[in-house]
Amino acid sequence: MKVPMLDLVKEHAPYRAELQSAFDRVLDSGRFVLGPEVEAFEKEIAAWIGVPHAIGVSNGSDALLLALQAVGVGPGDEVICPTYTFFATAGAVARLGATPVFVDSAECCYNLRTDQVIAKIGPKTKAIIPVHLFGQCADMDPILEVAAKRGIPVIEDAAQALGAKDKGRQAGTMGTLGTFSFFPTKNLGALGEGGLVTTKDPALAEKIRKLRVHGAKQKYFHEMIGGNFRLHELQAAFLRVKLKHLDSALQKRRANAKRLIKELQDKWGAIFPVDSCICRGQKASGPERKPGTILLPFSCQSGEEDHTWNQFVIRVTGKGKRDALREKLASEGVQTEIYYPRAMHEQDCFSSTKEQFPVAEILCQETLALPFCGFIPRSADQLRP
Asked: Is 131 helix (H, G, I), strand (E, B) or coil?
């Protein structure tokens, strides 16, 4: 591809020597599991996020699983989450024998509809998982308010949103627990796998630390059933290097997003989907759309300095128009990605869910992630297959 979605070799080049030094440091230490690198990274990332407890774990999917297990989710329970999300959100719920209760997306920022979250709380609701999708925080205040009144834990799925903010509050600091992924494509990515759980609750933090090593605080003495969910020393060392560069990396992504929005407006006639946030179920208002209209990412809770742009996702209205554009761009050497081609309620493993989620279903047909690096849109002729 002439323009890849992400060039990790190019991204790591400026601090390659630092990464090599981190590798040598771990190799020379002879410590490879839960040693000084993990401990140091946990302190540094906790300070960066602004939360008292940060626990490094094996990956973002396991971070969700541990957070749910820590608040007692199990068979017979229900957990409310969006249907338009990566599989791990609902998968972690099902792995514990609980049932994911899906809600639709808002057409503004594509995060979950908060009015539907409130409406679906029932006697079996054990937790709520708002997902901060594509680097933008969900509308947290209504969720936090109702959860506090009902005594329901809120687990923020911030896998794509490290550094994102809602009204000045960092993602992963607002709910009962926050979960993060360090998959290599994330804005803070490991050179392999990694994840994180954050919390302000010292008791929950202690529980997570036990669960990640088979439920034991002292080796061979198991207080609960956990698993092997440890962050490796080598990945922690790499993450410590990349964390030092994260602020500048996010500033660059924000500048690139602002530039790309302007260019798409000028060259493709792109428009925003709505005039204002409709996360709480308000009636949508916005410009008329013809098939093939390009819809830009809309910022709701996040200002320009609060969105982290883990993905830059546009919409192409009209049946088949998104796929035609993707094929056209591919023929020109421009790589794109679809997040997500199928919502959770449409997956075979959750097919017993008969409810319809019209916005999520439309998003699966129309959304297309564009590359930040090196992509310069041309005139509207580029849109014609």
From this structure: strand
Residue 305 has pLDDT above 90, yes or no: no
Distance CA 137, CA 306 (A): 8
In the block, tokens 């791990």 appear at: 88
**For residue 337, what are the β-bridge partners?**
369
The CA distance from 314 to 366, in Å, is 8
All domains in the chain, ordered by first residue: 8-104+112-243 (3.40.640.10), 247-383 (3.90.1150.10)
DSSP 25-56: HHHHHT--BSSHHHHHHHHHHHHHHT-SEEEE
* Contact (CB, 8 A) for 195 and 57: yes
Q: Which residues contact 266 (CB under 8 A, 6 or more apart)?
A: none
142, amino acid identity: P
Mean pLDDT of 256-266: 95
The answer to whether 15 touches 242, Cβ cutoff 8 Å, is: yes
Element (H, E) at 255: helix 246-268
Q: Could you tell me which residues are beta bridge partners of residue 170?
A: 165
Sign of CA dihedral 150, 155, 157, 162: positive
Higher pLDDT, 370 or 354: 370
Among left, alpha and beta (phi > 0; psi -120 to 50; other), residue 269 is left
Pairing of strands 99-103, 78-82: parallel
CB neighbours of residue 230 within 10 Å: 16
Residue 34 CB burial class (10 angstroms; 0-12, 13-18, ≥19)? middle
Please give the mean pLDDT across all residues of the chain. Answer: 95
**Does an H or E element contain 166, and which?**
strand 165-166
Residue 26 above 90 pLDDT?
yes
Indicate the pTM of the whole model. Answer: 0.96
Strands of 125-265, DSSP E:
125-128, 155-157, 165-166, 169-170, 177-181, 195-199, 216-218, 221-222
| Side-by-side strand order, sheet with 99-103 | 99-103, 78-82, 125-128
